[in-house]
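dude i think i finally got it to work??
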Amino acid sequence: MLVIEDEVGIVDFLERGLRAHGFTVRSALDGIRGTEMALSEDVDLVVLDVMLPGRDGHEVLADIRRAKPMLPVIMLTARGEVDDRIAGLDAGAADYVTKPFSLSELAARIRAQLRMAAQGATTAVSGGGIEADLLTRDVRYHGVPVALSTTEFELLIYLLRNQSRVLSREQLLRAVWGFEHDPGTNLVDVYIGYLRRKLRQAGSGREAPIITVRSVGYRLDARD
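look at this
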């Protein structure tokens, strides 16, 4: 994602915090450079401050809407007035966050926007012999239907969207359950076990493509 914000301290705070939540973050310190990066680089979401040197956030937003109408933009501002929020949303912002803000809440809003963007772009994800439909919530493993609970489905989708990447237990706990790090819980391991068992049953004994990475977490093997 791209953060366009002119206050260096806030940029540092956002970069560190959002990376800890599992996001890849780039940043620009003014509206001109921010516009260039948003339009020329492959970014999946923009966090955009309203008050910027060079070009203000509303001008940047207008350019993004013209060139990349499907790119989600979350406006970030110290202005808390209702009229300001309405103006930003009417101009095409996907969401509006007022400073000061909770980093966990911002991360949750970002995840929500990325989910909606992904669902708008495609209704299916696949990898490792697994096919999942985001609308019908149908899952198949090598062509055989697999019945999953809501939580199992959300966990599988997150693994599929990050296939071949090693995901820590903390990342999975935040992404699927919305929890911060809790060393006392084994929720992730329990649900990985559920997924593996159901996929193995559907695959007539074929092992599930969910690989344990010792002392770290899990990885979905994308090879069919």
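The chain has eight helices and twelve strands.
im so relieved honestly
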